[in-house]
């Protein structure tokens, strides 16, 4: 199987600009090889709006199919997030061959590997490792072995009002000081982020905890390295930020779009969110549209920045009938420069290929992401992460809302981590 780009009849950039539906209609996906034989179709099980007809991933599949008519790929569009994982697990637990390629959230790696659902990619590690950012590559590994190929990533950033803040804060304490000062002079709230009781809260808390020097596990995840005292201090800081008004009213019910809307309506000085909000604020940012900028997230030390990684990697199903071709496809998604540039340029989706960020340095979001992703951290790709996260959500939420003593909550987090080693 040829993994190098062949002659392109239609470029992915043109696909995005001309409109995905129109181009897709113009391309004919045949089920036969050039000599009239039957082709061997691969199924890529991936969720989210870009997996739907006319979406970004369809354009990428069309390019592959032109270059590889003997092994065309078809997208099986799944629900987003937990719904996608549920559909995967229903098929994989039955050892079904319905799916050849699995789009795997960065925190599912360990679970899929431990369950025997995916093939090891150690045999193609060198190709993938040579072009991938370190953070996304780490998220695709479990037990020191590569189980998936990085595809798209994500990193959090701070959005701030330039008409209210001269320079972005470099520490979380400074952010609260500025937020409260602005409130004294206006009726605008402080920080909006993801404070509801769901996975997003754990992600936000980890960014605070990591930025204070905390860790969950040691490097190979064989021991808990959780500092209860440090975790207590971070939870106490959150509780104080919530009580003082540094966090906007309604912080404890907000998810991603709630935070975007709050900032967009002019009700917050700061917003912690993902890069997707930038274009939406530019297009229809209300009061904030002409007065916002982006910066790295603060830390407690004032040094550097730390973001939790988001994104998806691609794995080969252990039950695929054509693992070799499926492996070629996932490697191509990671290592083909046109594919990776298209994620950024057409879909505004952060790629995992390091060189793309150098090429797109003039784009403010991609330029900032190039710095953020160098220091971004993956949540542990543990098989038990879904259970760990649910307990952490409860403990963090109760502690910062004043319903549990922060030290007791921190001790609870340590106990949860130790119970799932």
Q: Any overview of this molecule?
A:
Keywords: Signal, Transport. The protein is of the alpha/beta class. The chain folds into two domains: 12-154 and 310-375, Periplasmic binding protein-like II (D-Maltodextrin-Binding Protein, domain 2, 3-Layer(aba) Sandwich); 157-308 and 384-419, D-Maltodextrin-Binding Protein, domain 2. The protein has helices spanning 12-18, 20-26, 56-67, 82-93, 109-114, 125-129, 134-139, 172-185, 199-211, 228-244, 256-264, 276-284, 323-335, 337-345, 354-359, 364-375, 385-400, 406-419, and strands at 42-47, 73-78, 101-105, 141-142, 145-146, 149-154, 157-161, 189-192, 268-273, 292-295, 310-316. Strands 2-1-3-11-6 form a five-stranded mixed β-sheet. A four-stranded mixed β-sheet has the order 8-9-7-10. Strands 4-5 form a two-stranded antiparallel sheet. Strand 1 (42-47), helix 3 (56-67) and strand 2 form a beta-alpha-beta unit. Helix 1 crosses helix 2 (20-26), helix 9 packs across helix 17 and helix 17 (385-400) runs antiparallel to helix 18.
Layout of secondary structure:
Blueprint: H1 12-18, H2 20-26, E1 42-47, H3 56-67, E2 73-78, H4 82-93, E3 101-105, H5 109-114, H6 125-129, H7 134-139, E4 141-142, E5 145-146, E6 149-154, E7 157-161, H8 172-185, E8 189-192, H9 199-211, H10 228-244, H11 256-264, E9 268-273, H12 276-284, E10 292-295, E11 310-316, H13 323-335, H14 337-345, H15 354-359, H16 364-375, H17 385-400, H18 406-419
Parallel strand pairs: 1-2, 1-3, 8-9
Antiparallel strand pairs: 3-11, 4-5, 6-11, 7-9, 7-10
Helix pairs in contact: 1-2, 9-17, 10-18, 17-18
């Amino acid at each position: 199987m040829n993994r190098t780009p062949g002659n392109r009849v239609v470029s992915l950039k043109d696909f995005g600009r001309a409109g995905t539906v129109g181009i897709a209609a113009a391309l004919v996906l045949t089920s036969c090889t050039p000599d009239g034989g039957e082709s061997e179709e691969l199924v890529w099980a991936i969720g989210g709006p870009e997996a739907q007809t006319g979406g970004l991933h369809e354009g990428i599949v069309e390019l592959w199919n032109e270059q590889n008519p003997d092994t065309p790929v078809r997208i099986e569009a799944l629900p987003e997030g937990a719904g996608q994982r549920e559909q995967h697990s229903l098929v994989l637990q039955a050892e079904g061959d319905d799916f050849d390629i699995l789009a795997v959230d960065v925190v599912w790696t360990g679970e899929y590997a431990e369950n025997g659902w995916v093939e090891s990619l150690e045999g193609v590690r060198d190709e993938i490792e040579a072009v991938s950012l370190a953070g996304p590559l780490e998220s695709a590994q479990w037990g020191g072995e590569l189980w998936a190929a990085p595809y798209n990533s994500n990193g959090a950033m701070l959005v701030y009002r330039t008409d209210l803040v001269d320079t972005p804060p470099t520490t979380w304490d400074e952010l609260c000081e500025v937020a409260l000062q602005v409130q004294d002079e206006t009726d605008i709230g402080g920080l909006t982020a993801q404070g509801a009781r769901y996975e997003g809260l754990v992600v936000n808390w980890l960014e605070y905890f990591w930025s204070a020097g905390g860790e969950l596990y040691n490097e190979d995840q064989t021991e808990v390295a959780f500092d209860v005292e440090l975790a207590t201090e971070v939870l106490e800081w959150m509780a104080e930020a919530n009580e003082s008004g540094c966090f906007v009213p309604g912080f404890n019910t907000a998810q991603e779009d709630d935070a975007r809307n709050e900032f967009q309506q002019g009700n917050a000085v700061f917003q912690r969110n993902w890069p997707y909000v930038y274009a939406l604020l530019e297009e229809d940012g209300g009061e904030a549209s002409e007065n916002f900028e982006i910066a790295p997230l603060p830390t407690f030390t004032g040094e550097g920045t730390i973001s939790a990684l988001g994104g998806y990697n691609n794995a080969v199903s252990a039950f695929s009938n054509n693992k070799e071709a499926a492996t070629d496809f996932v490697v191509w998604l990671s290592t083909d420069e046109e594919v990776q540039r298209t994620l950024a340029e057409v879909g505004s989706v952060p790629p995992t290929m390091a060189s793309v960020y150098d090429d797109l340095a003039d784009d403010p979001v991609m330029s900032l992401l190039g710095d953020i992703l160098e220091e971004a951290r993956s949540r542990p790709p543990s098989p038990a992460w879904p259970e760990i996260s649910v307990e952490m959500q409860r403990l963090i939420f109760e502690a910062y809302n004043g319903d549990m003593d922060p030290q007791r909550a921190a001790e609870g987090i340590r106990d949860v981590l130790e119970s799932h080693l």
